[in-house]
Amino acid sequence: PEAEQAKDEL
Amino acid sequence: MNIFRLAGDMTHLLSILVLLLKIYATKSCSGVSRKTQELYAIVFLARYLDLFTDFISVYNTFMKIVFIASSLAIVWCIRVHPMVKRSYDKDLDTFRHYLLVAASFLLALFLHEKFTFLEIFWAFSIYLEAVAILPQLVLLQRSGNVDNLTGQYVFFLGAYRGLYILNWIYRYLTEPRFTRWIACVSGVVQTALYADFFYYYFISWKNNSKLKLPA
């Protein structure tokens, strides 16, 4: 599930 | 977006502006490690491979382009610009930074969120960023006294990831399923590497003396 979180940080 | 992450991104942007100012104003890169700049260019290129595929926000896309463009511009300046190139001291900048690239990539092959091309390169960029400052810190220790702009550049670069740690704590407390272990652990290691620099930077600020790292 972790990878589902969009990489919204720089 | 929270205040800690915004402050972190702005501090990171500030560090890049300070470095650009130093190189542009003095037409010199003395005290600046070309290897650290090359590592950061690799970090941004590897991390933002999804620049054209995943749209998060205008801010996110804009900042990614700024980070990629500025890091490549700085490497170009130090490698190609005749005035700046002459001031680069390759005898001081001797860290074997390709070992950092190899080790980070190897670690990313074993430790990642998902075994996909993008996730492995993202993890690689996170691990590489954690150690990217090492050539610069070694160079500062060797080059004795550090000019103000270079010192401020390293300070802001170290501070930005420290602010990101506050951001991760905040998001962990406020978002139910927020977990970013790879970025968190790497970020703590990255910030810890600046510990002694922060100490000597604080001393020089308190005593209003020249920043000097012990050899």
Automatic annotation (TrEMBL), chain B:
<keyword id="KW-0256">Endoplasmic reticulum</keyword>
<dbReference type="GO" id="GO:0005801">
    <property type="term" value="C:cis-Golgi network"/>
</dbReference>
<dbReference type="GO" id="GO:0006621">
    <property type="term" value="P:protein retention in ER lumen"/>
</dbReference>
<keyword id="KW-0931">ER-Golgi transport</keyword>
<protein>
    <recommendedName>
        <fullName>ER lumen protein-retaining receptor</fullName>
    </recommendedName>
</protein>
<dbReference type="InterPro" id="IPR000133">
    <property type="entry name" value="ER_ret_rcpt"/>
</dbReference>
<feature type="transmembrane region" description="Helical">
    <location>
        <begin position="153"/>
        <end position="173"/>
    </location>
</feature>
<feature type="transmembrane region" description="Helical">
    <location>
        <begin position="58"/>
        <end position="78"/>
    </location>
</feature>
<dbReference type="GO" id="GO:0005789">
    <property type="term" value="C:endoplasmic reticulum membrane"/>
</dbReference>
<keyword id="KW-0812">Transmembrane</keyword>
<dbReference type="Pfam" id="PF00810">
    <property type="entry name" value="ER_lumen_recept"/>
</dbReference>
<comment type="similarity">
    <text>Belongs to the ERD2 family.</text>
</comment>
<keyword id="KW-0813">Transport</keyword>
<dbReference type="GO" id="GO:0005783">
    <property type="term" value="C:endoplasmic reticulum"/>
</dbReference>
<feature type="transmembrane region" description="Helical">
    <location>
        <begin position="98"/>
        <end position="115"/>
    </location>
</feature>
<keyword id="KW-1133">Transmembrane helix</keyword>
<dbReference type="GO" id="GO:0046923">
    <property type="term" value="F:ER retention sequence binding"/>
</dbReference>
<keyword id="KW-0732">Signal</keyword>
<dbReference type="GO" id="GO:0015031">
    <property type="term" value="P:protein transport"/>
</dbReference>
<feature type="transmembrane region" description="Helical">
    <location>
        <begin position="121"/>
        <end position="141"/>
    </location>
</feature>
<feature type="transmembrane region" description="Helical">
    <location>
        <begin position="179"/>
        <end position="202"/>
    </location>
</feature>
<keyword id="KW-0675">Receptor</keyword>
<keyword id="KW-0653">Protein transport</keyword>
<feature type="signal peptide">
    <location>
        <begin position="1"/>
        <end position="25"/>
    </location>
</feature>
<dbReference type="GO" id="GO:0016192">
    <property type="term" value="P:vesicle-mediated transport"/>
</dbReference>
<keyword id="KW-0472">Membrane</keyword>
